[in-house]
Amino acid sequence: MEELILSARGLNLYYGENHALKDISIDIPERRITALIGPSGCGKSTFLRTINRMNDLIPNVKITGSLTYRGQEIYAPEQDVTDLRKRIGMVFQKPNPFPMSIYDNVAYGPRTHGTRNKVKLDEIVEESLRGAAIWDEVKDRLKKSALGLSGGQQQRLCIARALAVKPDVLLMDEATSALDPISTAKIEDLAAELKNDYTIIMVTHNMQQAARISDNTAFFLLGELVEFGETEQMFSMPQDKRTEDYITGRFG
Amino acid sequence: MRNTFHEQLEQLNIELIKMGALCEQAISAATKALLEGDLALGRQACELEQEIDQRERDIESQCMKLLLRQQPVAGDLRRVSAALRMISDMERIGDQASDIAEIARDVEDSRLCSAVPMADMARAAIAMVTDSVDAFVQGDLELARTVLREDDEVDDLFLRVREELISLISAGENGSVCLDLLMVAKYFERIGDHAVNIAEWVEYSLTGHHKGGK
């Protein structure tokens, strides 16, 4: 039986008057890749950002309903947001390495969380870079600026930076949309490896990518979760006509 | 790169080899049932045919999954497309082996089988099936073309069996058995044709061209 890691029940999100997420209920299994798809403005990125409270920064946001991570309410007043974001890491569309060395990029999170020991940090940096399948490419230039890396390498560095704080869940917001096909394939291979240890939730505009690498797919439309299920089932026999119309390119 | 995809393509090869091996076993069991009058082997051929049908559905679903999830292009696309066509031919080979086994059940006089080169036909047909599937798995165009030559041999054998059966009927042998044997020979000849189809799919998969196409 699959363990659930995140559950939403009747989750609503409003940006002021705009009802951006409508009554979302979903159970996301652990150590699987879950893809969120849907046309622009459908709520998929909003939902992703709700998971590690990135929407807290936006004014006039109102959230109702329940969203739990390992049984704990993510929006409970006592929730420590820094701790939550340590457990639920995020990789963005555009690679965003800090303007510092490759080593310092990866060591940034652990240092912030109090790790000062050099040997320990070296270990974490190597382990994280290996985990993100970029160690061999950067091991001889760890002290060089991260900004000198290619886009694909920068994105894998950002994944390494996310892994360095030993998260439980990795959120990927269109993490390959700014990359060429070769870098994309590397990240996809990497995601397939990472799901042995992490739960990955990814927003993608690329339906082929969702079909290639995800185990489960959620289709959002106009703020609603239209359909959620096994990727193969969803792409071969969707249950809802709106899903079929979208994935076959009839609208969106 | 694209590790999962390449593992799945490799798995497809393994399944095709297994299906090919089942076809060979089915033809072999049906032939022995005919030549040795072994009813148990005849039943085995019919059971193998059902297993082959199941394999066809399994591999078809595997190919659909590959198309759906991996969106193969170029040589990979031709490969999956060829595999989908090949399994239909293999399924028909299984049917024909089972048909041979059914006729074997009714042939009371297996002595007449030995009077014609039926065993040679069976051997040649099995070799064609083996070679055509191997050609796909190994991507061996030369081996695929060998299958086309082997087909000439099976066709020649069919004509020989036919002529010898006509002679046997003229000599007053049991006409009903002779006609059954002619049917069996035709099934072997059809098995050869399916192996040729498989070889032609191999050629398409490797070169992008259909035999005789432009």
Question: What gross morphology of chain B would you assign?
Answer: elongated
Shape of chain A: globular
Estimate nothing, just give the exact number of structural domains of chain A. Answer: 1
CATH superfamily of chain B: Phosphate transport system protein phou homolog 2, domain 2
Plain-language structure description:
The complex is a heterodimer of chains A (252) and B (214). Chain A is an alpha/beta fold and 252 residues long. Chain A has a single domain (4-247), classed as Rossmann fold (3-Layer(aba) Sandwich). Chain A has helices spanning 44-51, 81-87, 102-112, 118-131, 135-138, 151-163, 181-194, 207-213, 231-236, 241-247; strands at 4-15, 18-29, 33-37, 61-69, 72-73, 88-91, 169-173, 199-203, 216-221, 224-230. In chain A, the strands form two sheets. Chain A has a six-stranded mixed sheet, with helices on both faces. In chain A, strands 2-1-4-5 form a four-stranded antiparallel sheet, with helices on one face. In chain A, a hairpin with a 2-residue loop joins strand 4 and strand 5. Chain A is globular, with a radius of gyration of 18 Å. Chain B has helices at 3-36, 39-70, 74-106, 111-115, 118-138, 141-170, 175-207. Chain B has one domain (3-207): Up-down Bundle (Methane Monooxygenase Hydroxylase, Chain G, domain 1). Chain B contains seven helices and no strands. The radius of gyration of chain B is 19 Å and the shape is elongated. Chains A and B meet through helix 7, helix 8 and helix 9 of A and helix 1 and helix 2 of B.
